[in-house]
Amino acid sequence: MNVPFSHLLIIAFLLFLMGLASILVRRNVIRVLIGVEIMLNAAGLVLVGSSALWNKVDGQLFAVFLMAIEAAEVALALALVIYLRRRKGTLNINAFNEMRG
Amino acid sequence: MATVVFYILAILALLGTYLCVTRSNPVHAILYLVNVLFAVALMYYLLGAPLVAAWEVIVYAGAVMVLFVFIIMMLELTPDQEMSRVGWLRWGPTVLLAMVLFCTLVLFVAVDPETSRVIVDTYVAPKAFGYALFAKYPLAVQVISFHLFIAAIGAYYLGRGGGSRKRSREEGDE
Amino acid sequence: MNELTFYPLLSLLIAIPLGGAFLCVLSRRSSGLCRWLALLSSGAVLVLAGSLFRLPDQTGWLLREDYAWIDTLGARFTLGLDGVSLLMVLLTALLIVMAVLVSWRTISEKTALYFSLLLALEAGLMGVFLALDLFLFYICWEIMLIPAVILIVVWGEEGSLPAVFKFIFFTIGGSLLMLLSIISLYYLHGEQTGVFSFSLEALRLTKLSGSLELWIYLGFLLAFAVKIPLVPLHIWLPDTYCKAPTAITLLLSGVLAKTGIYGLYRFAFQLCPEAAAKSFAWLSIVALVTVFYAAWTAFGQSDIKRLLAYSSVSHLGFIVFGLSVSNRTAMEGSFLQMFSHGITMGAFFALTAMIEERIGDTRMERLGGLWGRAPLWSFFFLVVALSSLGLPGLNNFVGEILILAGAFQSLPWLGAVAVPSILLAALYILRLVRHVLWGVSPAGLIWTDVGRREIFILVPFLILMVWVGCWPQTFLDPLQQVAGLPFFEGAVALKGGVLP
Amino acid sequence: MRPEFISLIPLLPLGGALINILFGGRLSRRVSTGLAVVSVALAAFMVVAFWSYAAGGGTRVELYTWIEASGLRVPLVLLFDSLSASMALMVTGVSTLIHIYCLGYMSREKDYVRFFVLLNLFVFAMLVIVLAGDLLVLFLGWEGVGFCSYALIGFWYREGRNADAGQKAFVMTRAADVFLLIAMLWLFRIFGTFSIPDIMARTELIPAAAATPLVLLLLAGACGKSAQFPFMSWLPDAMAGPTPVSALIHAATMVTAGVYLLCRLFPLVMLSAQGMAAIALVGILTAGYAALCALAQDEIKRVLAYSTMSQVGYMFVALGAGTLSGAMFHLYTHAFFKSLLFLGAGCIVLLGGENNIFRMDRAARRNPLVFGTFLVGSLALAGAPLTSGFFSKDGILTTVFSRGSGLYELVWVLGSLTAFVTALYTFRLLYLVFGGKEKTRGEIPTLSFSMAVVLPFLAVAALFGGVINLPAIFGGNETLRHFLEGPDVIQGFVAHREEIILTALAVAVFAIGWLAAYGLFRRESALRDNMASRFFRSGFYIDQLLETLFQRPFRTLARFWDRATERQLFDGFFSGLGNMTFGGAKIVRRMQTGRLSTYLGSFAWGLLFLASFFLCCALGG
Q1: Do C440 and D147 make contact, defined as CB atoms within 8 angstroms?
Q2: Would residue C345 count as lying in a domain?
């Protein structure tokens, strides 16, 4: 395989960017969560890539940690989505403003 | 050969992500995302991380995405058409951020010779991976497992309707 | 040292009220039991404090205790008793007993909490007056605040919250500055010697550059000036005094204000002697402004509590004046005056509490002609008023004359300026007496003379007033050799010379 | 007897007061009042018994150390010398008589315990002043009499006016005490002690520049208690108290405390010629002022009050002229005839049913005892030849004349004029009280025995009191002067012929005064209200002046401090701070929309900011 690390960075960057756009632009909670998933994947890609670049196992380990934490997050987040949907009957994130100052 | 496959996968991933973000139907979006995840998993494999790749497929594509689909189906989400009404305040940072990040990236790539180094073929055997995981980061493993445990309890509590009891009480108060 | 030092008497002074507070909480079911528990434990402290009366030895300390505490910080549990702290400890013990008696009947809700907080307050006060370790001192200083605030908020008059906010704002603001000073001293000392310690004796040896010493001194000074309080830091005081339950006002004015003066002398002056000596001129002027301004403002009040609050400020300013003229006589006068002022104000607020108990109000226009209604009560009131305006033969005169005589030795002009304060005191006190005792009672005033419990409160005050007024030696002798005073001898350089 | 027992002289009245405070309510009226009288009488007896101790330099008795701090020691020390012994004898003697008088006067009063307690306390405090061997001990008595007079003037406290009068007396004397205290502290600074004998023995330590201010400060202090200019206006108001109180406090004893103080410190006073001139000036101004005011009063007690002020002014003149014995002589004679006059006035008011001399019933003239004794007192006051007042007043004027210099000549002229006015107002009082028509009124109350019995004693003293210091031209040998051994400074010498002329002049002044009064006041109709009489009656509007100059601004400022500085400035400043915080919070809380998208957006903005910052850093570096 003959891929410069910079290319990998660019790919991860583009993924991250699209995830970010999804978060900022979408109002549906599910879509926001999907954006988060994409961003996390971009991060994982860089981690694994750097692990390969420097020939160290740590990057991969962190990618796994990332995955585990992310799984936990999704579990909780989706449970919350159900809960919120039940409460407000909508998934529009702007409907949830109980924390208004 | 591997290089070509890698680039194809990269393009697939980017394309899939773009479609995932832009499609208005959430089910479609999820399906595109599954594609992306597969592509990324293969990229992991090519980068010498077979174990991570396997888990990517199992955990992400297998578990998380199924969960998403399940939720979307359960809540009967309809396609949303709110993309057009998005103001600059929300697009603005995205675009600007993209530009700044891009500049940073370019600068980084230009300045640091390390980035232009080619990724050589590496391979981390599952055994070595496991040794490293449990010998070097035992505390992190502990913490993360605890984290998962608590998340499970939380999800159980919320899913069982712990919140709804509270809600009914609040309504009763009103 | 004698055999008594074998027992940890000073720690007991702190431990007994704490134990009493704990027992009060345990027996919260029976409010009567709580009252008696509070009375017993505070009485035990009083007996213990009285038994500490003796003459100082060569070191100036009557008693000293030192235990290991938090080694990693270098903080130790060091307590020391010298003549000044002896008077303050005695005063605290006495006034807490009086506060318990004063609130015997007025507190009917949450009795256990009330009395245990009162005892906790006593423990904090004892700690402040005994601590020789700055860490311990600071802890006690803050602990003292918590029961006081809760007592005011829960049992105070309606609308006490803004007053309490003011109180907290000022006090915390001041004590944070003090904390800053303490910490910087701690670090400087640690850097210089390699030994990190909060001990007063150790920190006194810290070498400080002039401006640094001044800043550290200012931190202490502000904290204590708020507590005393000196004008213009007194804004929290009138409202707090008015809204607090009267038993607490008694303590606020009788003891809590003294913690400021005590801290000034024990910590601020001794830790930063040079800065203190430099500040004396300003401090004495501020103190005099306090004396006159507060007395004058007191004259314009129509509420007894408010009037007494300002009067207290005025008298406290006079005590600070005595400390800041850098003369040994005046200083001993100040220490004695701290004690006398506590007695007078304690008695005054005890009498005010009786007014409040009877008519639920302390406005002067609600009163009048009480001599005809309640001669005994009026007699006590008159004597306390006379003591407050400095009639010779009663307690306040002795301290005042010592302060004035000392002030005349070192700063004659300032001393002469201070003298008219006796006239101002007479003005507002006589106005108070005129409105309360003389004239005709307003229609519908129902008033019963003092009962047995109230006589039991007032008679000790009366005895002490005459005692201090006629035989002040009992209280002056322990002050003859006060610990850690040598720096003052150098500061009295202005001695000699005559007015032109 | 051991000299320590001298302390019993003040302690006896104190003991009487304490017993009455503690048990007065439980004892029967007879026992409790008897105790009060007996304790004072015993004190008088003790003075006589200890008389021999006063000889020579006197006896100094130290009871115990009152205050001892570093650099200051105040023993409770009594000084029993000729000056204090004679003064103590006068105080206790007159007080005993007045106490006896009070038995009758207060026989209807329910609150008699308080009255006698205060009376006893007053005698105690007065004796402390007299016997004090230390300035602080003197101050103890000084403030003590101040308090007692406050409480006694306002004895009938239900009347707001009385309470106010007491308060006024206390406050004005205390204002003067400020100066006294400063003087005392100054002396302490110089000598390192408050002891009177020690200070008097070493007056040369006082720097020349300090002498005059010190004397002036002492003078101001003395003026307060003695009701001299400018602290005089409390005395007429003080007549609100019971009449025997006026007799005791405001005639015989307390108002003379200022004179006594200056006598006690006379060696010090002598150091400053300017100071003495000031004393004489203050004395003569007050004497003249008060005599003029007495001319227009319409209450018998106020006439007597102003006359007291005037006579005390004479004592100040005597001190200013440098004759201690003259001042003390006049002090004693004045004590006799003025207490007689006040006690007589008490009887007259009781018989006449009214304090106002125009409206009162003239029933008193049918009571020969009251009439005769009051006449004797008035004659002594007016300076009728051969009465005690004649000798003492004439002695003072002669001494003043002998000083010779310009200022003292002026004082002498004014003094003689004042003597004329004194005779004038005294006879005015006599004519108005005993002359004129008698209104028929029902039953006239009878005087109780204890009231009547003291009058003759005092009358005898007032009439023949002159013998204690009879001048040489009348065949006397100035006993009092020799007894006091005072350091008199009579510089000039009065020739025998001049002295006779002066005496004759004094007689003439008295006679002219009488004749003028006869012409003016024999008929009531001669007394019409005009501007001058209003001016005099109001005491030259001094009260209004004080009100405008001091009291009103003081009250206004007190209110200003309370309302403006306290509540608006200080409180306003801090509530302003609070409001600012709240206002700021109101603005800032709008940022918390509660919407996730806002948070995410701001998160992105933050990220943007950080990233651009680092980018710039990287580009710059």
Answers
A1: no
A2: yes
pLDDT for residue C495 is more than 50: no
* C346, part of any domain: yes
Note whether A49 and A8 are within 8 A (CB). yes
Q: Name the stretches of chain D with pLDDT < 70.
A: 436-443, 475-476, 485-494, 523-529, 621
Distance from CA of B52 to the nearest CA of A (A): 6
Whether B37 contacts B61, CB under 8 Å: yes
Task: Point out which residues pair with C76 in neighbouring strands.
Answer: C68
Domain assignment present for residue C304? The answer is yes
pLDDT single digits (tens) D331-371:
999 999 999 999 988 888 888 777 777 777 777 777 888 88
Tokens of A96: 């949830």
CA distance linking residue C478 with residue A21, whole number of Å: 80
Contacts of D404 (CB under 8 A, 6+ apart): D491, D492
Alpha-carbon Rg of chain D, whole angstroms? 31
For C407, the domain range is 278-490
**Angstrom distance (rounded) from CA D413 to CA D401:** 9
Helix (H) / strand (E) containing D80: strand D72-80
Average pLDDT, chain C: 86
Q: Say yes or no for a CB contact (<8 Å) between C398 and D67.
A: yes
- Pair D321, D396: CB distance under 8 Å: yes
The Cβ of residue D406 has, within 10 Å, a number of other Cβ atoms equal to: 7
Q: Which residues of A touch B40 (CB under 8 A)?
A: 41, 44-45
Q: List, for residues A24-74, the tens digit of each pLDDT value.
A: 888 788 888 899 999 999 999 999 999 988 888 889 999 999 999 988 999
φ/ψ of residue C65, rounded to 5:
-130, 150
Question: Identity (one letter) of the amino acid at D579?
Answer: N
Residue contact B93–D601, C-beta within 8 A = yes
Q: Residue D77 pairs with which residues in a beta bridge?
A: D62
The whole-number pLDDT of residue D586 equals 87
Contacts of D596 in chain A (CB under 8 A): 32, 93-94, 96
Per-residue pLDDT averaged across B92-103, rounded? 80
Listed by start position, the domains of chain A span: 5-89
Handedness of CA D71, D77, D82, D83 (dihedral sign): positive
Q: In sequence order, what are the beta bridge partners of C64?
A: C80
Residues of D in contact with B109 (CB under 8 A): none
Instruction: Compute the CA torsion angle C382, C387, C390, C391 (nearest 10 deg).
Output: 70
CATH 1.20.120.1200 fits domain B1-78+97-124: yes
Lowest mean per-residue pLDDT among C4-18, C460-474, D141-155? C4-18
Confidence of residue C412 (pLDDT cuts 50, 70, 90): confident
CB contact under 8 A, B133 and A81: no
D347-386: burial string, b at 16+ Cβ within 10 Å, e else: bbbbbbbbbebeebbbbbbebebbbebbbbbbbbbbbbee
Buried b (16+ CB within 10 A) or exposed e, D434-454: bebeeeeeeeeeebeebbbbb
CATH class of segment(s) A5-89 = mainly alpha
Residue C489 has pLDDT above 70, yes or no: no
Cα–Cα distance, B110 to D6 (Å, whole number): 111
Contact check, Cβ <8 Å, D67/C472: yes
B77 pLDDT more than 90: no
Distance CA C132, CA C462 (A): 33
Query: What percent of chain B shows pLDDT beyond 90?
Result: 27
CA D371 to CA D431: how far, in whole Å? 12
C216 domain-assigned: no
Number of domains comprising chain C:
1
Q: Above 50 in pLDDT, residue C494? A: no
